[in-house]
Design goal:
Elements (H helix, E strand, L loop, with lengths): L8 E5 L4 E10 L4 E8 L12 E8 L4 E11 L6 E8 L8 E10 L2 E10 L3 E3 L5
Parallel strand pairs: 2-9
Antiparallel strand pairs: 1-2, 2-3, 3-6, 4-5, 4-7, 5-6, 7-8
Length: 129
Amino acid sequence: MKPHRTPLASTKILNGAHELAVHDLRQRDDSFTLHYTITPPLPDAADDTPVLLAVEAMDDIGNEYLDWGGAYGAADEGTHTNGSISAQPALAPEAREIHVRITFLHRAEEYPCHLTLHTADVRTTDART
């Protein structure tokens, strides 16, 4: 994921030391996934305590979505972190917005951030992609 794309949403995280930018929202039959970048990159687990992420969300019609895992890693050039995080179930077709809370856990402290995404930005992918 290239950090120069116009993000769907962005916010400062980890006490303002980093910026989270969500670049893609993809829907599957059973879940949805946020694809993001973090600049500057998160600390390397070999050098520092790793940062863990968890997501939870609620849409504008009251449906709740729970964490289903994710992964991240440094970009090849080392300027940012690329990642994705998923939640279940799939977004309700009637929903127009999703209110997302991503919690970053670092050194036994929680750093939550809140984003609102529009479901009009959702791209559908099948289970093979």
